[in-house]
Each structure stands twice: as structure tokens, then as C-alpha cells.
Amino acid sequence: MTVWEPKMQPCQLENRTLLITRPQPEADSTARQVLACQGTPLLAPALTILPPQEAGPLHQALARQEEYRGILVTSVNGAKAIVSAMPADADPPPFFAVGAKTAAILTKQGWSVHLPAIRAGGEALAAAVVQWAATNPPARGKGDSNTFLFPQAEQGREELITEMQRAGYQVEKVVAYRAEPITRLAPETEQALAAGRVDAVLFFSGRSAQAFVAALPPDGKEWLAQTCIAVISPVTATVVEQLGYKVSVIATEPDSNGLLTALHRYWHPSAANTGLER
Length: 278
Known about the structure:
CATH topology of the largest domain: Rossmann fold
Shape: elongated
Order of helices and strands: EHEEHEHEHEHEHEHEHHEHEHH
CATH architecture of the largest domain: 3-Layer(aba) Sandwich
Number of domains: 2
Largest sheet: 6 strands, mixed
Oligomer: single chain
Mean pLDDT: 88
Distance between the termini: 34 Å
Helix content: 25-40%
Radius of gyration: 20 Å
């Protein structure tokens, strides 16, 4: 597996207002990127990240971390939950992270972390983990089973688990955090959408899209249909389309920089066609 570093791409979003629906604190991080691109961020998190209703299972699983071949981490929130719950004297097995920001939280603790060579979702991570396991036999008495621990959201996706099981590995799930949907948009968000002042709405997950659409007032469905919708991945695009909306932009890479780069190219088609960035 290869550790990659994110590369910032030239990006101009001058005079564009972008509505950011991802949870905090990641929403603030994306807002800073939008400002760096001369855009205007409007924060409207559709989910609120909270601790699990029962913290015991995560603590118990991490207390037995020597029983696992590795630990799978697919979000920044999962990584933060692991750091908080890990025993002080722990010497955990390798971590397998889906993104550089997630990995950075774990490497800061001095733990071994692997990243797939290609930035993608759960299926790509599973393929990279299986390839690693085939060439790295476990040390005797430590993580010598075929079971991986997967601390995830209360309502997490199953692609990673399915792919690992197909390859003959077991995945033990444990709830690390929960993401509660909002029930109503903030008045300033509704006003901006109603007035047509939002140039693009950014969705970073299918669940955020579902929560945002559910929180729209009855006449708000048309507001969303009249703006550009930009999403983090094809999987999220499918969810948005199932909700009845057209997706105009899909991130060039599954991170906020890739999403802003894709928006830059959407609004500057000559730069995308010639390979030159303004």
C-alpha cells in the first residue's frame, strides 16, 4: 500500500456562493478552502456528529485490539473516536485508512497506518487491505486471525464489509459515533436558497443529502432543483438522483479539494478542455 499526499489544484470560485452541508468541524475546513479560492461559503451542516449511545462496545473492542489483524477506518470521525477510546498503553495492529486526513489523526499517535494508492471508497480500501494481507503474514500471537475491526457510524455503509468477506476475511463492526440528521434548515439558509443566492450545494455523503432534502420546507424542493448540485462521489450522486435531483458536478477526487476543483472546471470549461487552469 502507498501513502499519498493530497495535492492542491488551482481553483477560482470568485463571486460564487457555495452551500456546505457536511458536518462540523469538517464544514469549517471546507469553508476555509472555499475562501482560499475567492468563493463565499455558507454553512448548513445536514448532520450532527455525536458519540455513540453506548460507548462500552468500542472501548471493549479496542481493549482487545491484539486479537485483530488490523483496524479499518473510513472517516475522520471514526479516527477521532478511536483515539479517544484507545487504552493508553495500547500497541494496536496496523490501521487502514480511506483518506489522508483520517490517516493523519492516527499517525499523530505514532501508530502504523496504510492508505490505498488510489483515493476511493470502501471497495478500493478492501482491495488494498486484501492485497496487503496476502503479502504480510501476521506476527505470531498478535493479530494472527483473519478478523479486522471496523469502528463505523451507527448507520454505516456495507460495501467494505461485503468485499472483505468475499475475500475470506471477517469484519467485526462496532459503533464509534452517530450522525443525527437536522430537522429544519437555518433561516439564513432558506432565505439564500429562496432568493437564488446559492450557486452550488455541496453534498459529501448520501446520508447528508437525504437529511438536507428532508429538512427542506414544502416550497424548498424547487429551490434545490434550480441550483447546481455538486457531490463527492458517484455513490453520493446516485443517492441524490434517487431523491429526484440532477447532479451537475462530481468531484475529481473524493475529497473537498477534488470537489472544488470540479466546480472550478464546471464554471471554467475552457480551462478543463485545454488542461490549463486560470
